Amino acid sequence: MNIYLTLDYELYFGERTGSVENCIINPTKLLKEIADKHNIKLVQFVDVGFILRLEKFKNQFPQLESDYIAITTQIKTLYREGHDIQLHIHPHWEDCHYNGQKWEMNVSRYKLADFNKEQISDILHRYKRKLEELTSTNAPFTFRAGGWCIQPFEIVKEEFLKHGVMVDSSVFQKGHYQSEQYNYDFRNACMKSKWKFNLDPCKEEEGPFTEIPIGTIFNSPLFYWRLFLLGRINPYMHKPLGDGIPVSAPGQRFKLLTRWTHNTISIDGYNAALLERGLRQYQQLKKEELVVIGHPKSITRYGITALEKFISQNKEKHQFTTFREQRSQLI
Ligand SMILES: [Zn+2]
Asked: From ligand 1's centre to the CA of 86, what distance in Å?
């Protein structure tokens, strides 16, 4: 099986974004150390909107200048050493400002669908160009939507085609969520591990795009009780390394704690305990690809250990790979 370890490389978007050092740079270093040790490559879905915001304000604020340098240096190093750098868009950065102390977050336009056609075109153009600049190629061709808000895809289709963004990895089968700010509904998604699509990433049909969905696992509420309790009982091992607060997702915690839910196969926090089980289920289903998601900001010391164990146990049996390495198979 092809296993892709994908990380959404970003800050938190809540009341407190956390620092670049603790949410991005340091945890990414830890993840890279493990990957290097086992000679495997990682995929970073880079939140480019944030980098452009840093670039815009860096001359006014020394902190942002050093954040900009730290991030762009790390991305260039990752790419040079063979890791994959792909496109992650959180367009709400267009509306966020730095007040000299902290980022003032405005997430009222959280998804691309909240912008008009010209704005979407401009965002995609600038964001992709920035990634090309950092990787010195026109390499980025895979997309992950911020907050998984890939729907409706029709409105971005033409722009994706124009910019050669031909692969998406935003869908996770059976997942769905609806709030004022964001929503996704993958309950009717194709159940394969990879498929072609045209107007709807959930639907397999003849078209120019490839969906390679994030792995899904069906979890009991008991798992989340354990996850939340461990964070309280043993924060050293189970508290995320990032120092920010997530954007609010009303009702989400209650849902997780009270019913069985479909969730992503993830490196984040205690979720890393389920990596092996997720892989076994995918093998039983005879799937050929497994995309694991993670966020440097949300990993824990426990998660790092569990990830390393997962890699050690599986690197001979499976192929840890990247979109960059699989490009000819995907486009
Ligand atoms: Zn994100």
From this structure: 12
